[in-house]
Amino acid sequence: MTHTPVRDRLVDLRRELHRYPEPAWREFYTTCRLAEEVEGIGVDRLHLGRAAMDPTERLAVPSSADIAAWRDRAREDGAREDLLDALDDCTGALAVLDRGEGPTVALRVDIDGLLRDESTDETHRPAAEGFRSRRDGAMHACGHDAHATIGLGVLEAVAESDFSGTFKVFFQPAEEKAGGGRPMAKSEHVADVDYLFAVHVGLDHPTGEVVAGIVEPLAVSNLGVTFRGESSHAGLAPNEGRNAMQALGTAIQNVYAIPRHADGATRVNVGRVEGGTASNVTAERIEAEAEVRGETTALMEYMKTEFERAVRAAADAHRCDAEVTVEGQAPRADSDPALAALVGEAARSHSAVDRVVDDAPFGASEDGTYLMRAVQERGGLATYAIVGTDHPTGHHTATFDIDESTLPTAVEVLTDAILTAAARDPLGRAGGGSASTGGADST
Ligand SMILES: [Zn+2]
Ligand SMILES: [Zn+2]
153 - beta bridge partners? Predict the structure, then answer.
């Protein structure tokens, strides 16, 4: 089998992944295709599904019926049977290159799509050029198709280089639900990582711009709320009911009334509710989806504690029971300037980059921060870079798209930074790392 290099197929690969968007924990087609490409590149180890993480730490895992349906769809679309078997019921992958003495460097990319429809408008390039989503109700509307492709491109470039050390690419599932970062971060695979790079495209940064390291992402917790009461006839015996609708109404008012915190920014939102039976029945069950955020992990935890208290008090006031579950979570983590500097250096020497921003606030949330924190807490360094791309509309919209010229730029800048991190080994922990002068230049 001849294998055309990934670097010559970046656009094709991105478009193929774009056709098959899969939401959190249902990335079976995507993971199988990534695994095939990783095999083609040739690595020393490839961990699939549960073996790529600590599966007990997963968040936002859908029902097994839902998982099975998407797995079947992947099979119908041609995902390789032996790879589907290896994945079992869990998506995601970790590719490892063991290349002798030197530090352990890692790249984390996310691979999931979103549950939303993609535009059919002819002005939307994926529709006009035939690579629009083939999965009704799902779309790569955040650029994670590009991230997965970039991960492959960097893996191939590092594999073909004189890199010395260990290199890992984490293909992380379920970022959009903040569910996949924690299980990968809690696995043994992160324990030896000295330098971690993560990347996102776009985020309102145009083509030609690179942010070397984001700072100040909001810590976030996605919360599921269930109120349980008891139904009764709303006319004949309202007093015999326990009204979950009332509990919800009271809770919504009070979670938005949680006092602001003196230490910094906080957020709360109740975004979706579902429940009740009919206008003449006391509601016995209501479910809600909500989130809290904070400028720091501690502020997020404050909001979560107060949120739970308000919900329980509201349930109590209306003689109902309430349950709050954490459906997804991400701590705050800031890029380390020493590692971000290597991204900045690589970007400045790249001909397609005309503006380098050393650091920029993230504004949103991102569960790659779990991996960043895991590395930083063990004394390693982490940076989360943004490679700008012109996107016609905002992330998560039906007409989101990327400028594909960003793909090779991102691969080359990240590869350059990764090779430099390994060659210079600024922490000097690996012992074998040679203090070389310039590292490799990929331009
Ligand atoms: Zn997103
Ligand atoms: Zn994203």
Answer: none
189 domain residue, yes or no: yes
- In the numeric block, which tokens belong to residue 313? 């008090």
102 CA from centroid of ligand 1 (Å) = 34
CATH of the domain at 134: 3.40.630.10
**Looking at the structure, do residues 294 and 365 belong to the same domain, yes or no?**
no
In a domain, 431, yes or no: no
Beta-bridge partners for 324: 225
CA distance 96 to 212: 24
Q: Which domain holds residue 233?
A: 219-329
- CA–centroid distance, 19 to ligand 2, in Å, is 17
| Same-domain pairing of 56 and 100 | yes
62 C-alpha to ligand 2 centroid (Å): 19
The alpha-helical segments, DSSP class H, found in 291-436 are: 297-317, 337-348, 368-377, 406-424
- Domain count along the chain: 2
437 alpha carbon – ligand 1 mean position (Å): 38
Ligand 2 center–CA 132 separation, angstroms: 18
- Ligand closest to the CA atom of residue 172: 2
435 located within any domain: no
* Residues 76 and 54 grouped into a single domain: yes
Q: Which residues contact 236 (CB under 8 A, 6 or more apart)?
A: none
Tokens linked to 141: 């509307």
Residue 285 lies in a domain: yes
Report CA(203)–ligand 1 centroid distance (Å).
9
Q: Which ligand minimizes its atom distance to the CA of 201?
A: 2
Ligand nearest to the CA of 176: 1
CA–centroid distance, residue 166 to ligand 2 (Å): 27
Mind listing the pLDDT tens digit of every residue in the chain (443 residues)? 567 999 999 999 999 999 999 999 999 999 999 999 999 999 999 999 999 999 999 999 999 999 999 999 999 999 999 999 999 999 999 999 999 999 999 999 999 999 999 999 999 999 999 999 999 999 999 999 999 999 999 999 999 999 999 999 999 999 999 999 999 999 999 999 999 999 999 999 999 999 999 999 999 999 999 999 999 999 999 999 999 999 999 999 999 999 999 999 999 999 999 999 999 999 999 999 999 999 999 999 999 999 999 999 999 999 999 999 999 999 999 999 999 999 999 999 999 999 999 999 987 889 999 999 999 999 999 999 999 999 999 999 999 999 999 999 999 999 999 999 999 999 998 654 344 433 344 33
